[in-house]
Protein: Tetratricopeptide repeat protein
Amino acid sequence: MELPDPLRLRTEFAEEARSERPGLARLCLLVGAVADPARGEPGIDAAEVELDRLAGELPHRPATPRDWALALAELLGTRYGFHGTESDYRRLESSLLQEVLRRRRGLPILLSVVWLEVARRAGAPVHGVALPGHFTVGFGPPDGLVLADPFDGGTLLSPADASLLVTGVTGAPLDPSLLRPADPLEVIRRVLNNIRAWAAARPERTDVALWAVELSLLLPSHPADLRYEHAQLLVKCGDFVRGARELESYAEVVAAVDPEAAELVRGRARAARARLN
Structure:
C-alpha cells in the first residue's frame, strides 16, 4: 500500500540522506516538499527541470575556475537576477529550494545550492564552502580556489574578502580548513538549522519547527538534545502522549551522565501526561 504523501516524503528523505552518495538537490527539494506537501513530487520534478535548463544556458565550457565563476555569475546573478537581501532572512521561502528557484531570492546557503547544482550539471569543478554565518561557493582546487558569493549575485571574493566575512562572525582570522568542500549532509543540516531558527523566533509556527526537527532526526547523525527539542515541540502541539514518551526516552540517555537532569526531564514527562486528564 502506498504511504500517505507526507510520510512518503519523509521516508524518501531518510533514504536519500542515508544513501551512499546523498544528492544535495534531492534533499533540499524534499525539504521543500515537506514544507508544502500539496506540491509534492510534481514540484520536485519541475525544480529539477529548471536546474537542468539553467545549466544548459551556460554558453561554453569555461577554461579556468575563474572563468567558471564568472560564467555562473553572469548567467545566474546578472541575467536571471538570483541574489539575496536582508529581508530574505525573515522569510521561510528563502530556505526552500523550489521557492528560491521561483523567486530567485534566498539565503546564502540556498542560493549557493542553486549555483552548485547548475555548475555541477555543466561539469564545473565546484563545491560548497561553509564559512561561518555565510555560505559561499568555491571553484577549482585548493591551491587555485576561486570563491564566489551567490548572495551578492556571484561576486568573486578575494582571500581578504573571505577573511573579513569570517572575522566579522567569529572574531578570528580565516582558517584554511574552512575552505574545504562541504558535504551534502553538512549542507542539509545547516539548511534545517536555519529553518528551526526561523521558526523558533515565531511561536505561532510550531508546525514548521516540528517538521524541521523531525527531518533533522532522520539524518545519519544528530545531537542527542535534538530529541529533547522534539519532545518539547510535540507537547506544545498537544501531542502529549508522544511528547511524554520522547521525554522519557531522552531521560534514559541523560541518566547515565546527569541523573538530576534526567529526573527533571521525567518530571516534565509526567506533567505532559497529566495534561491528558
In short: The two ends are 36 Å apart (CA to CA).
